[in-house]
Amino acid sequence: MLESYDVLVVGGGHAGNEAAHAAAQMGSKVLLITMNLTTIGAMSCNPAMGGVAKGQILREVDALGGMSGRISDRSAIQFRMLNRSKGPAMWSPRTQNDRHAFANEWRMTLEAHPNIHLWQDMVTSLIIQNGSVRGVTTQLGVDIYAQSTILTSGTFLQGRIHLGHQQFQGGRSGERAAEGITQQLADHGFLTGRMKTGTPPRIDGRSIDFSKTEIQHGDEATEAFSHFESPDLSNQHPCHITYTNPRVHAILQDSLADSPLFSGAITGKGPRYCPSIEDKIHRFADKDRHQIFIEPEGRHTVETYLNGFSTSLPKEAQLAAMRHIPGLEHARMFRPGYAVEYDYFPPTQLHHTLETRNLTNLYFAGQINGTTGYEEAACQGLMAGINAHLKNTDQTNFTLGRDEAYIGVLIDDLITKGTDEPYRMFTSRAEYRILLRQDNADQRLTPKGHELGLIQEDAWEMFHVKQNRMAALEKELETTSADPKTVNPSLEAAGSQPIKQKTRWTKLISRPHIHIDQLPLNTGEMPDSWIQHVETTIKYRGYIEKEQEQADRMKTMGALRIPDDLEYARLTSLSMEARQKLDELRPQTLGEAGRISGVSASDLNVLMLYLGR
Predict the structure, then answer these.
(1) Cβ count within 10 A of residue 524
(2) What's the rounded Cα separation, in Å, for the pair 28 and 10?
(3) Disulfide-capable partner of 70 in 39, 226, 255, 526 (CB 3.0 to 4.6 Å)?
(4) For every residue of 448-504, which 3-state class applies, written as one string?
C-alpha cells in the first residue's frame, strides 16, 4: 500500500493536471495516477489551444492561478486573436502549439512541485465506505487512500476505437481502455451514458504541396493567454487552408456503408459542432466544399494535422478521398483517423463544486462530465482541485456565477441542464458576454485566485501594477481635453467629424470608428493590450454598466434559497415536469431552478410565492 494522500487525481490529461496542480498549490499532498506517465498532458486531438469562448476560458484559468494558459504560451508556434471584426466581447485568443513541447511543459511543471507525486497504474475500482470514497484500488493490487478523489478519465472509461469495420478497446490510439469503474458507480446509483469523439488522419508534411493551399499567418502583434508571462512568439509557423470538393464527397459517399457512424456500430452521440467529414457531407449535402485546416504538430516534426477531416471510415477510403483535395494529391498518412466511444456520467449528478451527489469526497472533471475540448476540461479540473482542497480543510466551497466567468456558465449549464451530447463552450451560451471578455479575466478573477492561495506574490504585484497603470490612463482621459488644432488632423484622417472646441478625450474615444492609436496621445510604454482594455472600458461603458445592473438584479432574485427538504410533490401548482425535474436535481437557489430545462416562468412564480416573495 502506498502512503495516504490529501487529494488523489485519476488521469493525467488537461483536467487531471489542473486539478493536481491547484490542490498542491493550495497545500494538499497530491498523488496523480495515470496509466502512462509518458502521455501526461498529451494533446489527443488538434495541437491548438483557445478559440471562440475557449480562449476566454483559458484566460480565466490563468487569472485564477491555473497553468494551462502559461503552458500554451510556452509551447505556442502561432498566435491569433479571432473575431477581431466583431465587438470585443467576441474576441478570442488562440494558439497553435507544439504538441511535444506542450506535454513536456506539463510534465516538468508537475514534477517540479514538491506536493505532487506521480504513479503509473490503472485504477480498477474505488474504495467506498459508508457512502464516501476513501481512495482507489489499482490493477497492480495497490490500495491508495486519500481524503478526496478526483476522476478525470477522459475517453478511457470502457473506451472503444472504431476504424471502418474494425473495433478494438482503447481510449486513445495505442492505449488501452479503463475497465471496472463504470459498473461500480452504476451499482451505487449513478446514471451513465455513451459519447463519441473522433480525430482526423495525421499526414507527412513533406508530401503536401503547399503551393495549392492558402497560407494563414499568425498575428504580427501577439498577446498571450497568461497575464503573468510574456512568451517570445517572434518565430511563428504558418498554417494552411484547403477545401474538399464534389469528387472528394463522392468518394466519401460511396464509403458510407463502411462507416461505423452509419452502420450503427457507434451508438454514442458525437459533438454537434465538430462532426466527422462523412457526417458533414451527409448533413450538408447542399455544400460543394468544406474547409480543411492544415496544421503543423510542432516545430521539429513533419507530422501534420488535418483539422476538419475527422473520420472513422476505413483507412483506404480516407486516403483515397484525401488525395483529391488540392495540395494533398500525394499525401502520405502517418496514421488514419478514428472514432472513440466512451462512458460518461450525466453531470446533473454533481454539485456545483463538481463533487458527486451520490458519493461524498468524489469529484468528476472533464469528459467524464460530457464535455469536449481541452479548455473545458482544464477549467473543470481547476475547480475540482480547488474544492477538494477546501473541503478537506473545512473551508467554504468555491464556485463562480454566470456573471463572473465562462467557467461559471459552463459548470452551471452542466449541473442544471445536463447534456446528452459532447458539450462545447460558445460565447452565445453566456448571458453577460460584455462582462466576461477575454481582456478583463484578471480583473474579475485574480483577486479570487490570490485569496485561494493560487496566485503567488510576484504575480499579485504584477496584477496591481497593471490595474493601477490602466486606471491612471483612464482617469487622465476622463479629466483632460483634446485641443481642436492638435486632434482635428487625426480625426479627419480617420473620417471622423472634427471638433470646434476642447473636448474630453473619453468623448472622442467613445466614437464607434475612433481608436486610441489613431489619436495624438502619449500612452508611454504601456502594452497595446492594456491600452485596448482602457479603450474598450470607455467605449462600451454604458453597455457594461447596463449588463452589470441586469446581472445584479438577477443575482438578487436568484440567490433566494430553496429549503433542502422541500417536497415538490406537494406543490400541485407546479407542472408535473417541473416537480419531477426539481425533485431529481434539488436546486439550492431560485436561480438554479430557473435554469433547469422544463421549469417554466409560471413554475418559478409558484416557487417565489412559496418562498414568501
Answers:
(1) 9
(2) 15
(3) 226
(4) HHHHHCCCCHHHHHHHHHHHHHHHHHHHHHHHCEECHHHHHHHHHHCCCCCCCCCEE
CA distance 159 to 199: 14
- Provide the edge-to-edge strand list for the sheet that holds 291-296: 214-216, 239-243, 291-296, 303-307, 202-204, 333-335
CA pseudo-torsion sign 587, 591, 594, 596: negative
Specify the pTM: 0.93
Q: What are phi and psi of 83, to 5 degrees?
A: 65, 30
Measured between alpha carbons, how far is 241 from 365 in angstroms, rounded to an integer?
34
Report the greatest alpha carbon distance in the chain. Answer: 83
Secondary structure (3-state) at 600: coil
Buried b / exposed e along 120-157 (16+ C-beta atoms within 10 A): ebbbbbbebeeeebbbbbbeeeeebbbbbbbbbbbbbb
Report pLDDT for 325: 98
Q: What is the mean pLDDT of each run of 10 residues along the chain (613 residues)?
A: 89 98 98 96 95 97 98 97 93 97 98 98 97 97 97 95 94 89 96 95 98 96 91 91 97 93 88 88 92 97 97 96 97 96 97 97 98 97 98 98 95 92 92 95 98 97 96 95 94 94 96 92 89 95 93 82 89 88 88 82 82 71
Q: Which residues fall within 8 angstroms of residue 232, CB to CB, at 6 or more apart?
A: none
What DSSP letter does each residue of 333-347 carry, written as one string?
Answer: EEE--EEEEEEE--G
Position 606 scores a pLDDT of 86
**Rounded CA separation 344/221 (Å):** 41
**Cell matching residue 526:** 504601456
User: 130 and 359 in contact (C-beta within 8 Å)?
Assistant: no
3-state secondary structure (DSSP) of residue 241: strand
d(CA 345, CA 57): 23
Contact 410, 404 (CB under 8 A): no
Q: Which amino acid is at 521?
A: L
Residue with cell 486606471: 471
